[in-house]
Amino acid sequence: MPKPAPAIWDAIERHWLLGSCSVEGLAHRYGVAQSTIRSHARVKKWAERGARRGDTELILRAQTDDLWRELNEASARLRAGGMPETPTEARDRLALIRLWQQSIAALRSFEISAQKTAKQPSPTQSVLFTKADADAVVRRLERLVARAENS
C-alpha cells in the first residue's frame, strides 16, 4: 500500500480532532489501515479524538477536504462514462452538490470575515484557498448540478 500524501494525513487529522467519523470510517474513506491511523496519531501526538468538536474553522476545513475528494471522484466517474445513475442516485448527488455549494459559501464568508478582523495574519487565519479557487469550484459544482438535473 502506498504511503499517504501529507494532505491526506492533514484531512485525517482534521476528522480525528472533530470526532466526526470513526477510525474505521476514516480508514475506509482514505484507504489507510486503522492501525496505521492510530499509530500515526500517537507518533504525531494528535490531541484526543473529538477534542475540537464544534470548532467552526476545523469543520469548514474538513468539509473542504471532503468536497475536493468527492469532486475528484465524481469528475473521474463522469470522464470514465461509467454506469448511468438511477434517478435516486442522481437526486442524492444533486442534494450533496447543493450542500457543498453552501459549505463553500460559508467557508468563503468565514475567510473574508477572518481577514477583515485580523490585524496581523496568523497561520490559523491564513486563506484556505483564493477567490479564484472558490470560483473554479463553484463552476465545477454548477456543471455537476446541470448534469444531475438533466439525468
Protein architecture, described:
The chain is built from 6 helices and no strands. The protein starts with 5 loop residues before the first helix and ends with a helix. Residues 120-128 have low confidence and may be disordered. Helices cover 71% and strands 0% of the residues. The protein folds into 2 domains: 6-43; 56-150. By secondary structure, it is an all-alpha fold.
Give the tags.
single chain, 151 residues, mainly alpha, 2 domains, 6 helices, 0% strand
Helix content: over 70%
Radius of gyration: 17 Å
- Which residue ranges are poorly predicted, with pLDDT under 50 across at least 5 consecutive positions? 120-128
Biggest pleated sheet: none
Q: How many angstroms separate the termini?
A: 36 Å
